[in-house]
């Protein structure tokens, strides 16, 4: 549903974005000029030349169109992944039979079933609670952006909720993207900073109070291990890898903890050393 909603918002706002792009290009130029005057760079002879060269190379209308096309491509990719997942789920009814025939030793089969059940239980709880928190974050962010009159508030709110599944980096992007929109829409620097502060406050309250209260440490993963996993899977799979970093690490930790040879790795991946 989130994927379809994101695709709908991208398509619904495409014409509006293209229509407003020239206006935002002028607003961006004005913001650059104000920043130059404030920093005293305008007095340097090279600044005007640099600014003209930069604006000659940047067509904001084309840039917005390219960005929207990229977002549409991402949505198409997720639809393809959804189809693969659907076929896997269709085979679920045969999984118990396959699991029972994996080994002639009932104890080994029971052990494998125990590991799978632990993965399903912990990852399922994590995703359910994270979805609830992301929904609350999206609604709160939407309310703040609507209050300030930010354009495309619904799109930025859905993106903020979606990006909340990416640890650490997602929270920054959830504030940065609407902040960039505010820079090109508003001329009042005080209004822009107030909006950024309000969005940051929403992220802080949910991330530092509601998140620990509801989720506790359900996955028991080291923050450093999460960061390393985020860097690794993002490098391998890009954006999908960033979303899957935490579940993959949790699954690996559960599997490692089930066998004596890999148990030390599970201990290192845990947050408190207990597994």
Q: Could you provide a short overview of the structure?
A:
The chain is mostly helical and 275 residues long.
Shape: elongated
Radius of gyration (Å)? 23 Å
Proportion in helices: over 70%
Order of helices and strands: HHHHHHHHHHH
Helix/strand structural class: mainly alpha
Give the integer mean of the pLDDT values. 81
Task: Report the strand count.
Answer: 0
Largest sheet features: none
Total helices: the number is: 11
Structure description:
The protein has 275 residues and is mainly alpha-helical. Helix content is 83%, strand content 0%. The protein is built from eleven helices and no strands. The protein has helices at 2-39, 45-57, 60-90, 95-100, 106-148, 153-163, 169-185, 189-215, 223-237, 239-257, 263-269. Helix 5 (106-148) runs antiparallel to helix 10 (239-257). The two termini are 35 Å apart. 18% of the residues are buried.
Q: Which features would summarize this protein structure in a list?
A:
single chain; 275 residues; mainly alpha; 83% helix; elongated
Indicate the topology.
Elements: H1 2-39, H2 45-57, H3 60-90, H4 95-100, H5 106-148, H6 153-163, H7 169-185, H8 189-215, H9 223-237, H10 239-257, H11 263-269
Helix pairs in contact: 1-3, 1-6, 5-6, 5-8, 5-10, 6-7, 7-8, 9-10, 10-11
């Amino acid at each position: 549903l989130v994927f379809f909603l994101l695709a709908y918002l991208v398509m619904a706002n495409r014409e509006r974005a293209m229509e407003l792009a020239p206006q935002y290009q002028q607003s961006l130029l004005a913001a650059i000029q104000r920043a130059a005057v404030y920093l005293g760079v305008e007095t340097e002879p090279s600044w005007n030349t640099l600014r003209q060269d930069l604006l000659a190379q940047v067509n904001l209308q084309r840039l917005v169109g390219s960005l929207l096309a990229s977002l549409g491509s991402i949505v198409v990719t997720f639809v393809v992944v959804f189809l693969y997942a659907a076929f896997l789920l269709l085979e679920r009814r045969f999984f118990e039979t396959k699991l029972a025939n994996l080994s002639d030793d009932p104890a080994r089969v029971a052990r494998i079933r125990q590991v799978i059940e632990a993965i399903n239980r912990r990852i399922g709880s994590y995703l359910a609670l994270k979805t609830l928190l992301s929904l609350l974050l999206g609604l709160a962010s939407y309310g703040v952006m609507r209050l300030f009159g930010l354009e495309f508030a619904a799109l930025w709110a859905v993106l903020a909720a979606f990006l909340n599944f990416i640890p650490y980096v997602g929270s920054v992007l959830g504030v940065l993207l609407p902040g960039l929109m505010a820079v090109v829409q508003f001329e009042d620097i005080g209004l822009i900073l107030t909006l950024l502060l309000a969005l940051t406050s929403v992220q802080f309250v949910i991330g530092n109070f509601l998140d620990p209260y509801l989720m506790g440490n359900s996955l028991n993963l080291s923050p450093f291990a999460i960061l390393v996993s985020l860097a690794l899977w993002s490098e391998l799979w890009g954006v999908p890898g960033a979303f899957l970093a935490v579940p993959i690490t949790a699954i690996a930790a559960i599997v490692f903890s089930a066998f004596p040879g890999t148990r030390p790795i599970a201990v290192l991946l845990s947050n408190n050393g207990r597994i």
